[in-house]
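Standup, Tuesday
Yesterday: got the pipeline producing C-alpha cells again.
Today: sanity-check two examples.
Blockers: none.

Example 1:
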Amino acid sequence: MSSSSSANTSSQPSPSTSISTLPPTSSSSKPKVLLFGDRSETKFDDILRDVAEVHTLPRVGYAEMIPLIKDKVEREGPFIAFGGLFLITDNFPGKWDEGLLGPLAPHCKLYVGPGAGYDKVDVDWITNTGAMYANSPTQVGKRTADGALMLILSVMRGLTPQDHSVRSGKWRSPVKTLDWHTSTIGIIGLGSIGTRVATLLTAIGAESIIYHSRRPSPTAQPSWGYRSLDGLYNEADVIVLTCPLTVDTRGLIHKESIEKMKDGVIIVNVSRGEVVKEDDLVNALESGKVMRAALDVFEKEPLVHPGLLKNPNVTLSPHVAPAPDSMGPPMNGEVVENLIKLVETGMPLTPVNLTQLKDAGFEYGNKSW
C-alpha cells in the first residue's frame, strides 16, 4: 500500500535533471551505497564492495530507522543508492516513504526493496525525486508459486478437513475432492508468480487452466485460456489469486463477485490479504457457496478473521508461501545485484517506474560516476 505522503519540494530535481547526475561525494573513487542490513550471504556481496563504497544500517523498525538514515546521510553521504535486506527474524520498516527516506533525496538515484510486491513503497514520491525503484521479484516469485502449488493441491484434496477428522478420532471424513487433471483452475494475475503457478500445474497434468490479467499475456502457453473476470468466475472450479494489490484489485473478491462463481468453488490466495473481503468470504464458506479456501495472506494480518479460524474447511498459512526462513539469501542477492548493475551500467535489473520517470521528463540510465 503506497503512502500518500507528498514529495518535499526541496528534494525534487527539475524534470530536465538527469537522475544519474551527482555531485562529488568524497575522495573515494567508488560511489557510495547504503544498505539496510549488512550482507545477503551470496556471491554478490563481495562484488558490490569491489565496485562501491558500502555503508550499512542495523535492522530496526520505521521509527527507529528515521534518525539513523538522517545521521548516516549527514555524516557519510550523499549516497547514489539504497537497498533493503530482509530477514524474517528481524525488524523491517513497514513502509518506505518520504518520512523514512527523505534525507537520501535528491542524490539517491535508486531504491531497491526485497520481494516482488511494493504496495508499502511510495513509488510516486520516489519518482518525484527523479529516482528509480526496483523490486527483487524472481526468487521470491518462484518460491511463492511453489507455496501456492502446495496450497492448491492440498485444498483440492481436502487435506485440512481430513486432518481435523483424524485428530478428532473420526478417521476418514466424507470430504469431496477435486481432480486437478480435469478441474478448471482459474488464475487471476498472470505475472511472474501466476505464470509459474500455471506452468507448475501444467507440468503435473492440469488440462484446463484459464486466467485473467489486465491484458492477455504474450508469454502464456497456448493451452491457457484468457478470460474476462466474469468469464473466469463462471467457469473456474478453483480460483487462485496471484495479482498485485492495486486500486482495482483491493476488495476484488467480495459478495457480488462470489455470487458469480460456481457453487462449491475453491479459493486460494497468495497475493495480498486486502484482495479478499474476509467477511464476505466467511459468509460464503458458511453457506457452502465456497466449498474450501486456502489463504496465505489476510486482510488485517497478523490478525485473522475469527470465522476463518473456526472453519475446518479453511487452510491457514501465516504468509509463508515463499518459505521466508530460507528465502533471505536468494532474495537479498537480487537486491544487491540490482545495486551492482546500477553502479556498472547506470540501470538496475528490475526497475518498476521507468514509464513514470519518462512521463515526468526525467532522464535515466546514464552512468556518471
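Example 2:
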Amino acid sequence: MRKNSALIILVYITLGVIWLNLGSHWIERLDKDTPGEDMSFLYDYKNIIFLIVSGVILFFLIEMYRRNLSSMEKSYKQLFEGSIAAIYVLDRSTYRLLEVNEIMVRKYGYSRKELLDMTALDLRPPEEQEKLKEYLGSEQPEGRATGVWLHQKKNGEVFHMLISHHHTVYQGQPAFTVIAIDIEVYVKAEERIKELLDVYETVTSVTNDVIWEYCPHTDKLHWMNGFTEIFGYEEALRGDTREWILSKIHPEDRERVEQSMEESLAQLSNSWRCEYQLQCADGTYKYVSNQAFILLDKNGQAEKMVGALRDITVRKNYEQRLLLKNQMLKDIAWNNSHELRRPVSNISGILDLMKADAERNQTDLSLLEMLERSAAELDEIITKINDSTKNVDLKN
C-alpha cells in the first residue's frame, strides 16, 4: 500500500515539474516573440490547466488505487472466508474477537454473533486460559507455529489446534490475526502409534522377537529393539548389510539359509522362513527362527523384507534332550526284549522236553499246555515291544 501511495505522489510531482517548466519556458518564448503584448495572463491559464489536468490525473490514479485496494480486500476476504483453517482477529489488549471466518463458526459450534461477543480466552478450557494470557502478554515471534494448544467447543468438547499469529491493525485497533489448524486426528494417531509401540515393546520383550527390515535395492538392514539384548551386539559392533548378518550364521547353515532367501526373493514369495544357528557377540551360537514378509513395489518387485527373528535355543535344547531320552528308551526296550526272549526260548525248549517225557509216562498234559500258552503269550508281548521300538521316529 505504501508503495502505491508513493507512486502516486511521485507521478504527481514529476508531471507537475514537467508542466511548470515547459509552461514557463513556452510563455517566455511567446512573450519575446510578441513584445508589444502582455502575455502574463497566460501564467494564470497555465496554473488553471495544471490544476485541471493534475486533478484528472490524480482522480484516475486514486481510482486505480482504490480499485486495486478493493480487489486486494476482496481477495483477502475470500482467503479469510475460504480458508480450510479457522481464522480469527482478536484485540491485542482485551483479547475480544473482532472477526471470525465460517470455519470458526462450524468448528466451535457458536454462531458468528456469539463469537463476536466472546474473547479468545472463552475458546480455551480453564487450565489453558492463564497460559494464554502469559503468552499474549509477552513478546513472541510471529508468522510461525506457536505450538499445539487445547481449544474447547460450545458443547464442552476439547480438541487440539496448531496456532500461528501475526500482528495487524483492524479498523484502527491493534490486533492479532490468528490461524488455527485442527490437528486432533494427528494427535490421536500419534497417541495410537505410541500405544502400539508400547504393546510392540512389551510383546517383543516377552517373546524374544527382534523385528528387522531389509531393503534389497540399497542393501540396508535395520534392527529394532532387542537385538543387542538377545545377541549382545552393541551398535558399534553391528553391521547394517546383508553380508554382515550372513557372516554370523553358522558355517553349516549359511549356504542353506542364503539359498532359501534367494529363492524367496526370486520367486516373489509372500513370506520366507528358516531356522539356523546365529553367532552371538561372545562367540557362542543360538538357535533362531527367522520369518519375514516380502513387500512388493508398484512394479511387482521386492521392495523390502520385514521380519521377526526369534531365539529358539531353549526349544531346540529341549528337543535334543527329548530325542536323547527317546533313544535311551528305545535302547532300554530293545535290550529288555532281547533279555526276556532268552529265558522264553529256554522255557519253550524245556516245555518240549517235558511234553515228550510226559507222553511217555502218561503224565497230565493240561498243566504243560497252560505253561506253553503262557510262554507263547510272553513271546508275543516281546515281539510287539520289538515292533514298537522299530517304528519309533526319533526325528519327529
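Quick observation on example 2: The two ends are 88 Å apart (CA to CA). The longest strand covers residues 158-170.
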